[in-house]
Amino acid sequence: MSLPEHLPAAPEALPAHVIDNHTHLGSTAEYSGLEVAQSLDAAAAAGVLGVVDVGCDLPSSRAAAALAAADPRVRAAVAIHPNDAARCFQGGGLAALDEELAELPALASLPGVVAVGETGLDYYRTRDPQGQQAQAHSFRAHIALARQKDLTLVIHDRDAHADVLRILDSGERPGRVVMHCFSGDAGFARECVDRGFWLSYPGVVTFGSAGPLREAAKATPLDRILVETDAPYLTPKPQRGKPNAPYLLPHTVVFLADLLDADLAGFCRQVRANTEAAYATSWGGDA
Questions:
Q1: What is the pLDDT of residues 5-49, one digit of tens each?
Q2: Beta pairing partners, 115
Q3: Where are the beta strands (DSSP E) in the chain?
Q4: What pTM was estimated for this model as a whole?
């Protein structure tokens, strides 16, 4: 299909279907002008059969759930992002944050919602102790919700590896946990794999400065690897610096297959199987 001229060209289609397990379709439309239907059609043409559309606040979570109910290519994750949790707390205290968190169970019960997230801790953008405490409070509420609904927990972890694991280890975890936009080294990858988590690799792995992340990918068993765009952010090489979208996921998939010395078609099938296991759902269609 034809794309608007200001967007990166579509890569060669993958030899087998994969799933973009973490993207933000609404933000991509706002940032790049690529409407949701166009984005999904372009992704399908590139071999990306479906996506998990991830909420970061109540409006985007509602939009993701509505889209998942309307389009069989989409599944949804619903949450209050850790930085949004901190902002809500700073604006209205714990009562305001709890009021927003109280709306998530109804969203998590909607058809097509397969995950609670992205939630977790972000010490890069939220540095004050009270804001971080609010994030931890929100994180625990999301963990409890994922357990209650038997949904996958999708974790945002930025500069907070030790505390993310500490909170996850402090009580009973949900049965399925995805480390979104994995940013640790090989040692942290092993810690996550030992706990049964899936590790989702973004376009960052293609960047020249991402040597430790590539070592983490090499340390991750093939059946624990997921791939994501996090669109409209983190566009992989060779399109770095341009708007990202799910149709660009093949750049990261091909890079990882080469890095891991894996047959590309087999790697695609493995990533799809991993994604469907991680989210306890199937996208149907041909392999």
A1: 889 999 999 999 999 999 999 999 999 999 999 999 999 999 999
A2: 77, 152
A3: 18-23, 48-54, 74-78, 113-122, 152-158, 177-179, 198-201, 225-227
A4: 0.97
